[in-house]
Structures are given as C-alpha cells and as structure tokens.
Amino acid sequence: MKLNGNTIFITGGGSGIGRALAEALHQRGNKVVIGGRRRAQLDEVITANPGMEAVEIDMTDPVSIDRVAQHLIATYPALNVLINNAGGMLPDDAAGRIDDALLLSTVTTNFIGPVRLSSALVEHLKSRDDAVIAYTSSVLAFVPLALTAVYSATKAAVHSYVLSQRFMLRDHNVRVLEIAPPWVRTDLMNSREAEQAMPLDAFISETLAVLGSDADEVLVDGAKLFRANPGAGEHDLVNGFNAQMVPVLSQR
Ligand SMILES: NC(=O)c1ccc[n+]([C@@H]2O[C@H](COP(=O)([O-])OP(=O)(O)OC[C@H]3O[C@@H](n4cnc5c(N)ncnc54)[C@H](OP(=O)(O)O)[C@@H]3O)[C@@H](O)[C@H]2O)c1
C-alpha cells in the first residue's frame, strides 16, 4: 500500500503494535484515527501525536462498531484504509474445560468484531482510491500455540476470511492485507520484557518496509518459518514448536 496521503482507522491504536503503527503512519503524512476502549490510552497517544484523532470502540459490541463506522464515514469521508488490529490473547487449556467467557470474548474480539467492522465500512472503501483493509493476524494463525488454543484458532479464522475477502474484492480496487506478526514485545500476554520476543521498534520498521511493497501478506523475516507450514506434514512443525514454547511460557 502507499505509505502516505491515506486516511486510516486503526483499532487497538492505544497501545502496542497498533500505537506504534499509528505513530509511524502519522509521521509519514497520513491522517490517522485510532480506536480502542480505554479513553485514557487513546488520549495519551493523540496528545503525544498532534493531529491524530481517536474514537472509543468496543470490538465485542455490534452497536459500538456500527456507530463508529457511521461516525468515521461522516467525519472522515476520505477514509481509505481500515487496519483491524485490536485483539486479545489469554491462556486456556484445551485439555480441560474452556472458560465460556474467555471463549466468547476472544472469538468476538479477534474474529467477529473485525468482520463486522470491515462489513460496515466496505461499501465506503469501494468508493475510495487506494483502499485497503488490513488485519493483524498472527503467526499462530499458521502454527497454533497450544497454550492459547482459542486465540490461535481465531487468528486462523482471520487468515481464512482474508483469503475469501481478498478474492471477492479483487475487482473492486480494495486490497486486503494480512499482517502476521511473530512474538513482539507488547503488553499482550505480558510480553514487554520477553527476551525471545521481537522488539517493537524493529518489528514496526520491518513491517512498514513490507507494507509499502506489493505484498498481500506482511511478514517480517522472523515470521516466515511459521508461514511455511508444510501442509499435511504440519504436525511435526506444530509439535516441535509447542515442545519448545510450552515449557518457556509455563514458567512466566
Ligand atoms: N504482541 C505479539 O506478540 C503479537 C503477535 C501476533 C499478533 N499480535 C496481534 O497484534 C494485535 C495488537 O496486539 P498488541 O501486541 O499490540 O497488544 P496490546 O498492546 O495489548 O494491544 C491490543 C489492543 O487491542 C485493543 N482491544 C482489545 N480488546 C478490544 C475491544 N474489545 N475493543 C476495542 N479494542 C480492543 C486494546 O485496547 P483497549 O484495551 O483500550 O480496548 C489494545 O490497544 C492483536 O490483534 C494481537 O493479537 C500480537
């Protein structure tokens, strides 16, 4: 996608990857509007970045999503880029009983919400030049982390939806991109200090370089091994990955 001159709405822009991406795009001459639930986080980011704007949105609430979509179209008619980045990740136990509240909130936040938001904005985006719908999925879309089985499944669902939506929009001048980060140092799963995780600034600069290319999948180098899921031979990759990661994460 082009990296300047856009009007961008990015969810989860109050922290982590969303905030860093919002700031990088703001600095490159885009009009950036961030969304999230926590007003204080949003205010902190827009105060630090004059010209950036914010709206409160709850990705689990269809009424909130529709209200924000209508507000965006009315207030920012130039809106041409949606980045569905908000997400939540909690550990679960697929060998036991999955907490129903965790199940519903994870699926709603990570999958249903982004589908609802892109549905609410897609007709508007079809009318714009250089339109983009991007989703932050995860390398766990390709290789699940067994300690976060529900989360991993939501990201696989996002990946699948991206493939379908990209095909269906192929003649509409709306590009559908997937940003699939590896483990990055953010508040997600308290990973800010995790040494094995990628530093946020390195992730953002590598991501922007790919985002500015023709690639539909935005993968930093550290994500490519996961993407190279070997089809029917995936069990070795999945089991090897989890044999390595589960002991590390269980100690945290
Ligand atoms: N960090 C990683 O290792 C990693 C790896 C792969 C993929 N990802 C993905 O990257 C995205 C950003 O995560 P992050 O690492 O930057 O973690 P983060 O700092 O915790 O960001 C998550 C953001 O999502 C927002 N959010 C959560 N639930 C929401 C809801 N119901 N409605 C609206 N906004 C909501 C949060 O804002 P509020 O709480 O204010 O609503 C927060 O700003 C997520 O989709 C995550 O799955 C992260």
Short summary of the structure?
With 252 residues, this protein is of the alpha/beta class.
Characterize the structure shown.
The longest helix has 27 residues, at 100-126. The mean pLDDT is 96. Helix 1 packs across helix 6 (200-211). 46% of the residues lie in helices and 13% in strands. With 252 residues, it is an alpha/beta fold. It has one domain (7-250): Rossmann fold. The chain has a 7-stranded parallel sheet, sandwiched between helices. The protein has helices at residues 16-27, 39-48, 62-75, 100-126, 149-168, 200-211, 224-227, 234-250; strands spanning 7-11, 31-36, 53-56, 81-84, 131-136, 174-179, 217-218. It has 8 helices and 7 strands, in the order E-H-E-H-E-H-E-H-E-H-E-H-E-H-H. The site of NADP nicotinamide-adenine-dinucleotide phosphate has 31 residues, from helix 1. NADP nicotinamide-adenine-dinucleotide phosphate binds next to helix 1.
